[in-house]
Amino acid sequence: MPVIRLLALAALLALSGCSFTPFKTGATTGATPTGSKPREPGAGPVLTAPTDIGRPDGEPVIETPPPAQLPRERPRVPPATLSPASRTLVSQAQAQRRKGDLPGATVSLERALRIEPKNPLLWLEMGRLRMDQGNYPQAENMARKALSMSVGDDATQSAAWRLIADSLRARDRNPEAEEALERARALEPS
Amino acid sequence: MARKKRLSKSMRRRLQRGFAVLSLLLLLVAIVVVAVLDRRVTAQFEGRRWTLPARVYAQPIELYAGQQLSSRRFTEELERLGYLAVANPDRPGTYRRRGDRVSVFVRDFRFADERQDARALRLAFSGDAITSLEDAQGREVAVMRLDPLLIGSIFPIHGEDRIVVAPDQVPPLLPAALKAVEDRKFDSHHGVNPLAILRALFVNVRAGQIEQGGSTLTQQLVKSYFLDSRRTLRRKAEEAVMAVILESRFEKADIMNAYINEIYLGQDGRRAVHGFGLASQFYFGKPLTELSLPEIALMVAIVRGPSYYDPRRQPERALERRNLVLRVLAEQGVVSAADADRAAKKPLGVAEPGRKGGSFYPAFLDLVRRQLREDYEESALTEAGLTVFSTLDPLLQEKAETALAGELDRLDASGRKEAKGLEGVVVVTTPQTGEIVGLVGGRRAAFDGFNRALDAKRPIGSLAKPLVYLAALETGRYTPASILADEPVDLKLPNGDRWKPANFDKQLRGPVPMVRALTQSLNLATVNLGLEVGLDHVARTFEQLGLDEAPPEFASMLLGATNLSPLEVAQMYNTLANGGFRSPLRAVRAVIDEAGKPLKAPELEVAEVSSPEAIYTLDRMLIEVMERGTGRAAKRQLPSDLVVAGKTGTSNDYRDSWFSGFSGSHLVVAWVGHDDNRPTGLTGTTGGLAVWSRLMGSIATSSFEPLLPESLEHRWIDYFSGLETSPYCNGSAVSLPFDVGTLLEPAPDCPPGAVESPATAGFP
């Protein structure tokens, strides 16, 4: 079956005049299109990949409009929020932290994380708890996890950079802390 | 006469003196013996009376509005926990379901952070989710845990296991029944009951059935303490003396409680079940307080001979004796005749072994024990009465067992000789939190020391490829469109041998874009890439993703000659599923001591070990593996809109069949092979992937939707040429991430933007 498909595709490609560009083979070709990689802060992607696109089955099916024409700008997403269940658990954890019950706070926050593992706010809370525990590297790591989960959410990103700054300062890495704080400020909603 | 008298007088005096000395000696000996016995039995009774194996619980089910849980599945979970369906759930451990409304009286339970009191709850469901959760007064409850399933204990080899219960956790019927059946004079005797002994002797001599044993409960307790079954007269005498000593020193109530916690009630493999607390879990899967009359009667019946009256192996014998116990209870006025009659009509009601109470998660429990051994001495685990909160999700575990067994059975039935009697492993994790929620170590749950999931190190085959591609992407010199050479490799190895790997189908494809090379698992393109990137860099990537140490740098490692256990594979792939964040996989969440104090346990940790861009790009290509590559077969068993990513792996001569892949909420690693390493005739697709997709298709999971890093954008490229193209005129266009502004060569016949945008063309 796949063979037939490939043959059909080859035929199609031949018919449509599509030809493979001659490739060099060997070590150097690996790095095809490196070229210039401008990373303007304002430029960013807007498209999401369609999950099912035309397969090499000889009959190209056009299922998704190409989004390449849309203007390219940094997509914004609304600030992350907590579900009622995790909100309850976060306030419980905060109360436990105030009482100095750090193991208890850990249990509560981990419960929330199991309910909403992709909520960056919970990873931030976890990072703050690690600060209380004196585990500054993990506080930073939790904040970085929050960063990776809050692309386009300035408010959350700003909070994450603040936590990173705190964690760096706690380790006497002041210049880096200052840098992180700068990033936090730049992302603050005006 | 007088002489005689004198003589006899002096003789009598001498005799008297002799008697006095003798009795003094005897008394001394007796005092010493009693003192020795007293020390032994009192120390046993008073001191640390029981060594308590650590008790291991599964993760609790969280109840909250929005939780993906149907009312049917919820009640199944309640049944698993031994909750009883009743008309009016007014006591802990009961529930009532009416369609999509469930009322449940949740048991109290001491969690790692707090004791959660027993509480009546009302839940409403809609479809597959909980819609509301409130207490008996109608107040909303935001979130609450069910008491978790007890999945086992960490007991020493051939060791005793027990759950100690306090007097207030014992239903009053139990001591009453024990007295009625085993020791009617318990409340008044002084440790022994000479009449009973005589009667027992007499009955024994008549060789009839034993209606009453000669031993009092106290004597049975003493006997159990010293675990000596020699039936010598001396032992009997010692026991009797110690029973009298216990009675003189301690209250009846304390002795009864000790008995209830001490007595042997059954065998579970290597584990000896002691005490009614554990026996209640072992036989009925619920706490002692919740047992009904026929259940208590059965346990009292078992006391006399746990293996002779084993209700699982000898159900008829056990039923007969249970009903005899019920009759005795009615005769003695402990219960009414009507109650006894009604109870006698009930089935034994013993929980099926394997699901409730017993230790039927040996592979997982072994992992728990090994993780705890990092922080605890063996003796602390087997003796100190710790409570361990594990990460196991019993429902997922069950699905994983079913998926593996189902697929292996199908292979057995396929008639192919190599596919008969295969073994397998399944590891399931939740990638974000790094928790091991399921671990199946083989076809049968039981195993003897060898834990495949942890100890079976096998070549991982093509599961190594994503690591090669990640190493390449991290150099910043490659994109999914980079052209690789799918051309012959002929390497001279340090030992002088030549290494000439081939593609799976022995074909050469020449220049191929990276995405196709990975998606179709092309060996030669991968080896050429790996050699370009450098073996050292690839080896470091193994370590970076979570392996304890980098594998030896042989070129064959590029094709997965490295031997790894399924758990190690899970650790590495968990990092891929978790956006490049490594979290040490955990089987334990928390540990508390007997007093409820939190102790050391593995913590949730994360570390960013890969660039977000490289990970995102690799993950996108692993999605393509499932869309159009070697993982495509899985699609048939999965919901059409579920996005998953993964990779097949097959070792040389088809000895190992792997699949490792993930959705947004689960990572599953499946391995199928023979223990003796014979070829299986299976590729990663026919073995591992089949198990994987069976499992993924049977659980509630979410799409894998990684967030696009800001410096990347998606572009359409031709899958076969790597040229930039448009999906409007190219059926093999695939959308993949590139650094913003990357220069891509356009496809001449169908360049990007070849067809007008939908807005202007009115398409489709």
Describe the global form of chain A: flat
Secondary structure: number of strands of chain A: 0
> What distance lies between the first and last C-alpha atoms of chain A, to the nearest angstrom?
59 Å
- What distance lies between the first and last C-alpha atoms of chain B, to the nearest angstrom? 144 Å
Biggest interface, chains and residue tallies: A-B, 84 and 101 residues
Mean pLDDT of chain A, as a whole number?
A: 74
In quaternary terms, these chains amount to heterodimer
Q: Structural class of the helix and strand makeup of chain B?
A: alpha+beta
Order of helices and strands of chain A: HHHHHHH
| Strand order of the biggest β-sheet of chain B | 11-1-15-25-26
How large is the share of residues in beta strands of chain B?
15-25%
CATH class of the largest domain in chain B: Alpha Beta
Structural class of chain A: mainly alpha
Radius of gyration of chain B: 34 Å
Number of separate domains of chain B? 6
- Specify the overall morphology of chain B: elongated
CATH architecture of the largest domain in chain B: 3-Layer(aba) Sandwich
Task: Write the CATH homologous superfamily of the domain at 84-187 in chain A.
Answer: Tetratricopeptide repeat domain
- Can you summarize the main beta sheet of chain B? 5 strands, mixed
Summed over residues and divided by their number, the pLDDT of chain B gives a mean of 89
